[in-house]
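ok so I'm stuck.
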Amino acid sequence: MSTRALARFVAEMKYESLPPEVIERARVHLLDGLGCLLAGTTGGPGRSAAEMVAALRTHGGDATVFAGRTRGSLRDAAFVNAMTLYSVGLNDIHTGSVSHPGGCVIPTVLAAGEARNVPGQEMLVSMIAGYEVMCRVGRSIMPSHRERGFHPTGTCGTFGTTAATARMMGLTADQTANAFGIAGSQAAGLFEFHKDGALTMVFHAARAAQNGIEAALLATTGLTGPFTVLEGERGFCRATSNAFDESLLTRKLGQSYEVMATGFRPYYGCSSTLAASGCTAALMKRLGIKSPDEVAEVTVRCHAVVEHDNREDDPQTLLAARLSLPFNVSLVLARGDVVTADLYDEDLRDPVVRASLKKVHVVRDDTMPRFGCTMTMKLTNGETAEEAILAPRGEADRPLTWDDVTDKFRRLTSAVMHAKGAQPVIDAVHNLETTGPRVLAQRMVESIK
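replied:
not stuck anymore, here's the structure
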């Protein structure tokens, strides 16, 4: 049975048995996610989550809530920190499941690692386990799961955070299977946020982190869940998709690792807009464009999903802007290059950015890969040029390196960290096996202005 096979795999994973390149890729993703988490501490979603926890009078506990630098229970810290991390539009992406594992799993292992004082190597193993389960579940039900209106980061993320927590708590294979069974009745998240840029998208990662921790904790008390929760006739996969491939849950389990199939976002935007932003920057450089006023029209030929989901040319929220291909192209036209930091309300209303929105035309092209595009730019002087990016930098087969992510981390966190705050955090991640999650969390707190 697939659920029990995954549970056994999670329970029996050993740091010493993992390929070194898998451990190192997880380390790079960890630093990448922590940069997003720290950058998000000044944003609205993280503050909203922190205020909710405070209003429930559940603050104070064993784990750090980075938005506000307070303390919370394991569950509440993971909830707030996931909301904070995922609110920043530069976290990682697993294209096979169209989900963002770092947004769910990293806050979970950070909170659980700090609260339980686990060794650093166990934090990395638990993170790898979380990515593995979350992404395999997503692969098995895509694309119909998303087409039916579910948001994989929230739904599949619940299984990933359950795996990570179960591993970190030392649950047996049977306890882990029970936890998966409990998680199946919690996994949720609707894609309707895409309609108007509502912030429930960010909430989904936070709820996944919270639910996964609850599922693992409940399993330790003796609460049971169905051992066929994934593959069963009325299980999660068949209930939430029209086409379920059970073999993808366990194919090459322990031979290939999903963290290696997870990509990075080197600059602002959603995964579907990165290629267009890169094309815009390349054309501006090649044509010597100094002002968006020199550009008369931009046509982007892209995959059908992108044309349907990312064509909004008048976004009214920051999340809608992140998801909008015209906005991301206009942002590059206004700023002269791709943006490597998060955006704020003043960026959303920037008149220079908004002046170019109607110049951008999004056209369906069934020859385009899912995350690639071809751009034609026409200038006011009549000149026309074309650029294509079929596989954006940062994708799993073109990953960012440790040095790339270190540079991204410094730029992303520069507004929220002390001048010398970045290096101690970077060092703590680099040496996590000896520093451990408690030292890492403390250095993160000390780095914030």
